[in-house]
Automatic annotation (TrEMBL):
The keyword Nucleotide-binding applies. Residues 60-177 form the AAA+ ATPase domain. This is ATPase, AAA family. InterPro entries: AAA+_ATPase, AAA_assoc_2, AAA_ATPase_RarA/MGS1/WRNIP1, ATPase_AAA_core, DNA_pol3_clamp-load_cplx_C, MgsA_C, P-loop_NTPase. It holds the Pfam family AAA. The keyword ATP-binding applies. One of its GO terms (molecular function) is enzyme activator activity. GO terms for biological process: DNA synthesis involved in DNA repair; DNA-templated DNA replication. Keywords: ATP-binding, Nucleotide-binding.
Length: 447
């Protein structure tokens, strides 16, 4: 049973909210106009808007699966669907509820309907945690509309919700809240009588720190704000300061400005620590950036660059690790992305180092920029088009796979750069093997 059920109902049958309920519950939007960040689902005339506004035509009600990150409004939308049509709201958590609980709610809903009572909105939070058997138990009631199911999940429903349930429901995807949305919610909570009622103000640096800590999670933002207000009250202050926020969440504000000098200083130290093989320092700077709210994709891009620029052929697998980390970060996000990034940082920082590939392309590009290098040798030119052979294109070309060791002794470089040496491998890691092989290759090519 949730906070609404425990608090009872008002005269209209709408779930009431206890006066001592958490700020995140008290500030739950009372109308669709207060919902932030989900405009793509709440356009005039959209199915969801008709459901939450109780517009004629939205009945009979439609069961819904809401997919989105934590704190984006899934519970709020379920509540609004119940309140709009004066339906009874019952919440179950898939973490603690079993088939017995589901059947009890459905049986109660059946009795109410047969007695002319209220329809029931059953909100199942974290439905992906229900087993197939538990989800199967919902099917008859959804099929017969004994309840209006609103199932919330943070996991992809295509993999976590059974197909029969999905086919009987409207699938809606909620987007992560933007920083401006969370900031607006915090400001509303400061002044709204349901919230802090103007009893506190929030310092600018405290607001910035709070927003960095909570990311797109509205519920977490209000929880932190309430705790910080309590801390300020204890010391007799009406302004919620940075210190109050730090004490409330026990996380110090990191001095890091994503648009200022600190951003570049920390990023520079991060890269140089990986280059210098100090894995502990590299992990510290990684933690500093992530704690300050840096975009994990920015960090992942730096690791990819370092894997090639600083490690290169000394350990070619470092680049594969870094690229895999970037891809993983892109689709799992924080906070789990920190683990993936840490693994990639450890690989790059502890790998043998070589910047030979980096130095080689820079030297080659310097020659090109200086205008060095003549025409492509005739035997290397394209000989496939009509008339090319008459011009001598491809003549005397030796197919490398036909030569001993797969290396054909012929000139490849353009005129004037026959003796150019751009790539000079080190003796570190895998590149030591490359150096031995390259020495023999150059001997063959020079014969």
């Amino acid at each position: 049973m949730d906070l609404f059920e425990a608090a009872g109902r008002d005269d209209a049958g709408t779930p009431a909210v206890r006066a001592d309920a958490p700020l995140a519950v008290r500030m739950r939007p009372a109308s669709v106009d207060e919902v932030l960040g989900q405009g793509h689902l709440l356009k005039p005339g959209s199915p969801l808007r008709r459901l939450v506004e109780g517009v004629p035509g939205a009945v009979p009600p439609t069961s819904v699966v809401l997919w989105g990150p934590p704190g984006t409004g899934k519970t709020t939308l379920a509540y609004l669907m119940a309140a709009a049509a004066n339906r009874r709201f019952v919440e179950l958590s898939a973490v603690t509820a079993g088939v017995k609980d589901v059947r009890a709610v459905i049986e109660d809903a059946r009795r109410r309907l047969s007695g002319g009572g209220q329809e029931t909105v059953l909100f199942v939070d974290e439905v992906h945690r229900f087993s197939k058997t538990q989800q199967d138990a919902l099917l008859p009631s959804v099929e017969n509309r004994l309840v209006t199911l609103v199932a919330a999940t943070t996991e992809n429903p295509s993999f976590s919700v059974i197909s029969p349930l999905l086919s009987r429901s409207l699938l809606l995807t909620l987007r992560p809240l933007e920083p401006d949305d969370v900031a607006a919610l915090v400001q509303r909570a400061l002044v709204d009588e349901r919230g802090l009622g103007g009893r506190f103000t929030l310092a600018d640096d405290a607001a910035a720190h709070l927003l960095r800590l909570v990311g797109p999670d509205a519920r977490k933002a209000l929880t932190v704000l309430e705790a910080a207000a309590g801390t300020a009250h204890e010391v007799g202050e009406s302004e919620i300061s940075l210190t109050s926020v730090e004490r409330a969440v026990d996380i110090a504000a990191v001095r890091y400005d994503r648009d200022g000098d600190q951003h570049y200083d920390v990023a520079s130290a991060f890269i140089k620590s990986m280059r210098g093989s100090d894995v502990d320092a590299a992990l510290h700077y990684l933690a500093r950036m992530l704690t300050a709210g840096e975009d994990p994709r920015f960090v992942a891009r730096r690791i990819v660059i370092a894997a090639s620029e600083e490690v290169g052929m000394a350990d070619p697998s470092a680049l594969a690790t870094a690229v895999s980390a970037f891809q993983a970060v892109s689709f799992i996000g924080m906070p789990e992305a920190r683990i993936v990034l840490a693994q990639a940082v450890v690989h790059v920082a502890t790998a043998p180092k070589s910047n030979a590939s980096y130095a080689a392309i820079n030297a080659a590009m310097a020659d090109v920029a200086a205008g060095r290098g003549g025409a492509v040798p005739f035997h290397l030119r394209d000989a496939h088009y009509s008339g090319a052979k008459k011009l001598g294109h491809g003549q005397d070309y030796v197919y490398a796979h036909d030569a001993p060791h797969g290396v054909a002794a012929q000139t490849y470089a353009p005129e004037g750069l026959e003796d150019a040496r751009y790539y000079e491998p080190t003796g570190r890691g895998f590149e030591a093997q490359v150096a031995t092989r390259l020495e023999r290759i150059r001997q063959i090519l020079g014969e």
